[in-house]
Amino acid sequence: QVHVVESGGALAQPGGSLRLSCAASGSIFQLYAMGWYRQAPGKQRQLVAKITSGGLTTYDDSVKGRFTVSFDYAKNTAFLQMNSLQGDDTAVYYCNADATDDTYRRNDHWGQGTQVTVAS
User: Fold this and answer.
1) pLDDT of residue 99
2) Of 13, 17, 99, 110, whose CB has the highest number of CB atoms within 10 Å?
């Protein structure tokens, strides 16, 4: 099995910063990409940022220039640096690992989510 655990969610003030971490572990045969998604109350889960094993990144337009996704290949850990936080960034942030496990099945593996609240 592949396990995904997020951390780093907290209460932040508008204009502030937070750094989220996501560690993938377990029976990982190959990791293709890791992505950060968020879901605000009453809204659908949406992609925030994604990084492939080759280092290619994708961002939602709403976070471009403010958020940066990175990946530590040695630790199978992804990070989301969030700067200039806004109230609309308030959501539960989920990490996704696109990976093949030791049964050679490729699946999306989700973490439990971490709450980010932006308020003064």
Assistant:
1) 94
2) 99
CA-to-CA dists, residue 53 to 18, 35, 43, 64, 84, angstroms = 23, 11, 29, 20, 27
Question: Residue with structure tokens 């806004």?
Answer: 86
Token digits of residue 77: 């850990």
* pLDDT at res. 80: 98
Model pLDDT, residue 84: 98
In sign, the C-alpha dihedral spanning 37, 118, 22, 51 is: positive
Q: Are 57 and 51 in contact (CB under 8 A)?
A: yes
Q: If DSSP codes are grouped into helix, strand and coil, which group holds residue 88? A: helix
Cα–Cα distance between 43 and 18 in angstroms, integer?
22
Q: What is the dihedral sign for C-alpha 88, 90, 91, 92? A: positive
The span from the CA of 82 to the CA of 51, in Å, is 15
Q: What are phi and psi of 44, to 5 degrees?
A: -80, 155
Backbone angles phi, psi at 74, to 5 degrees: -65, -30
